[in-house]
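Two proteins were folded this term; both appear here.
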Amino acid sequence: MGKILTIMIVIFCVIFTTHAIARSNEYYKSVVVNALKNECNSKCKKTIFEAEIELAVYQLMKSVIAELNYRLSSKRKERLWSKEF
């Protein structure tokens, strides 16, 4: 169980702390240290990490949707300009 949790923590940190909208590394360190050192049972730890992953995925999806929206509007503008000329 301990190895799986450690692997999950490392994967989480690698995936969600390396993109631009990530929270600071200090924040993630404090969350991980808090969950591991405090008297928090496995259900509590699972809840903490699930909430963090859910928020990170939500923010990532928001940024992907914003990027898609930008690209689609750019393509739409290009088509309008090409039809006018």
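Next, the second protein.
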Amino acid sequence: MPVVIVKCPKCGHKFAVEVPREQPKGWGAHYAEKIQKLSPLHVEILEVLAEKGPMPKSRIGGILAERGRRVSGNSLSGRLSELAGLGYVECEYARVKLYDAKTMKFRFVRKPVWKITELGRAKVEEYPKETV
């Protein structure tokens, strides 16, 4: 759990408090901070985003398939979520619209686009291409 430093408004004493992670959907996997080493698929996703620029998940999957790596949509979503939790990629959120008012279902107006962050660019440069 993340630790937050809290200052008492009366006495001014500072102390650390563990708080549960409260992140909205799409902010990344909650367990990402426990990932110590990136998998070859993580690195390949970062390379694709570094080379080709921002793109939707389906295009990332297509490029990986062209490179000979077949990845299911759920697996790709999981890896992108882990990379987002580590701060290596981020998702550009599009507008959403109410799809069905009765059931309160929403849909993206356009597909979310994933892009690599500066932290992600630095991380992908740490990994030599031969190891992937």
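The radius of gyration is 18 Å. The longest helix spans residues 73-86. These notes refer to the second protein only.
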